[in-house]
Structures are given as C-alpha cells and as structure tokens.
Amino acid sequence: MTRDSDTRTRIEEHWTASEHGDIDTEHAIYADGAILDYPQSGERFRGRSTIQEQRGGHPAERHFTIVRIVGGGDLWTSECLISYDGASTHSVSIMEFTDGLVTHETQYFADPFPAAPSRAPLAEPIPGRQL
After folding, report:
1. Domains assigned to the chain
2. Nearest Cα to 96, choosing from 82, 107, 86?
3. What is residue 78's three-state secondary structure?
4. SS3 23
5. 3-state SS, residue 129
6. pLDDT tens per residue across span 96-131
7. CA torsion sign, 103 to 109 to 71 to 17?
8. 44, 36 contact by CB (below 8 A)
C-alpha cells in the first residue's frame, strides 16, 4: 500500500467512524497536539482530547456522507455532506498531516441555497446532488 492510499483509507475510516459514532476510531487520526479550526466561528480546539470532547457532546443526530476526498502527501481535503437533525450542510475539511497523523484541520461549513434563476441558462445540475 502506498503512503497516499494508506492516508486515504485512514481518512475514509475517520468519516465512517464519525457516521457510526465510534469516537475512538474517529479521533485516532489526530496527533496528540492537533489543532482544529472553525474559521466561521473563530474557534480553535487544541489537542486530540479537546477535539474529541467538543464533538462528543453534540446534541443533534448527525450523519456524514463523503462526497469526495482529494489530496496527496501531507495535505488532504474532504468534501462532505453533514446532516444535523435532518438539516443538511456542506463541509470542507482540510487536513494537514505530519508523520501520518493530522496535526492541523480546518473545517468550513456552508448551508445549501437555491440557484439564482438568472444563472439557469448557464448552469447544469451537479450529478448526484440535490438541494
């Protein structure tokens, strides 16, 4: 197995564990001193245990669907659809790896919105995606 395919597999395992509520496997990808940033809220979480704790008490029913994972070497991006109590939001996670573990993740969230009618003549639907 190449380094990139191993990293991709670990990222897929991370998101699958997130979907199934397996918090130990979900957080095994992080280095002890990892940093997680949420730029939209201005929050930074420092350390694997802190990252795990802030996610562990989430009151919503959550579901994760991987749309795509792209990357190589020490920089990987996951595009996901996350559902909180049935309301979907798009998420982009940028993971930076050092020695096989995530040392810095930046995660962005964006709610879906309807397409502007003025763009209809120029646009086509993205296959497999619906609002």
Report:
1. 3-112 (3.10.450.50)
2. 107
3. strand
4. helix
5. coil
6. 999 999 999 999 999 888 888 898 888 888 787 655
7. positive
8. yes
